[in-house]
Amino acid sequence: MTASAPRPSASLVEESLAGARPRTFWLDPSVPGHDAPEAAPPLAGESTADLAVVGGGYAGLWTALLAKERDPGRDVVLIEARTCGWAASGRNGGFCSSSITHGFGNGAERWPEEIAALERMGRENLDGIEEAVRRYGIDAEFERTGEMAVATEYWQLEELEREAAELAELGYAPEVLTASQVRAEVDSPTYVGGMIDRSACAMVHPAKLAWGLREACLRLGVRIHEHSPVRGIASVRGGLRLASDGGAVTARRTAWATGAFPGPLRRLKHFVAPVYDYALMTEPLTAEQKAAIGWKGRHGIGDSANLFHYYRLTADNRILWGGYDVVYRYGGRIRPEHDQRPETFRRLAEHFFTTFPQLEGVRFGHSWGGVIDTCSRFCAFFGSAYQGRLAYTAGYTGLGVGATRFGAQVMLDRLEGGDTERTRSAMVRGRPIPFPPEPARYAGIALTLRATAAADRDRGRRNLWLRTLDRLGMGFNS
Questions:
Q1: How many Å apart are CA 357 and CA 189, to the nearest integer?
Q2: pLDDT number for residue 475
Q3: pTM of the model
Q4: Is the dihedral of CA 427, 428, 433, 437 positive or negative?
């Protein structure tokens, strides 16, 4: 938010939140069209498979689907602790980005020699998602809209101009926009400029995408077991035995795609920190309200501070408004009660009306939160265990709607022994720096968040702590 923007009244904020349902909009069965599939039966007894996929979010669903596409005769089983899409894959903002590096800037800083290839592979990956949605008839409200990054301070605009120039050198065509040009797209008094890339992002309904991928997997013959948390992994003759409460499956190869929930794969706990992200959803805008902000297109929007907001229109013209706060609980605790955080919702609502004072009187219909699997490099990492019989991916840091398909390809490449452009890349071969144990982990994350907020208030200038993290390869990128 700009320091000079007027703050909405506390009563306006409280009234806007008064009727918000404390649940994820995308997963709310009371919303027309939100018809979740009937849960698959839990794992029971002993069984075998060529490939077991653990995790029914995007990463696991893409892995199972692509495995059957590569080899229709392969026996694939997918095991999910609850139901497919219930966690981050059903709770996000629905920004399906082409970036596999959590933004061009993060990738260019970490892998400058291969950023051109990473950017190309990311855009090819988004093309693949669009083609799969079409081919399988997935009704996920997929719209290849692009995304607009807006600047609310002039130092942010300078950074956007540099990024646009670097992308142009790679052959892409982002458009740098003046304040008046941005406000012609969407009108907010806080905007001083921006950049739009009209092909590098799509908007989707997150839960419908997960449900559609699940249905496509079933049609191709994937066996799915829900409400089947994997409690243990053991090497046995014939592969790995994955034990759940009521049964077990022994698979020759295993793909581990559990996001912020490492389970018995203990090594992930050193690299993944579960952080909470929160969002609000308005009631549908009237034609007059939508006209008041002049939102003509359907592209997603993100502002350009380090602690940023993301927002977009739904198919029925609600505004999803999320981001800004990043909350880590001591010890990485994940609890259902953490899904609601009133102080964050008040802050988000205040920022919403600062951005769009024209929408005074709009009310929020839903409020929710959920955990994101972040790591110290802020984009996916990959690895193997059990002598190469298990491959894993995690660490998507909130930008996994699109990148998880790339991660699924990497896991399958590794499990099949493939030597591909993906597996040869430094991004895939490298690992993030592990987080320290508690209490240093909690203290370090808290200090980093405070320093990042201070940088936003000081024209993006990074203090000694942030510069040290940059040198260590742990520079914070929300």
A1: 8
A2: 66
A3: 0.96
A4: positive
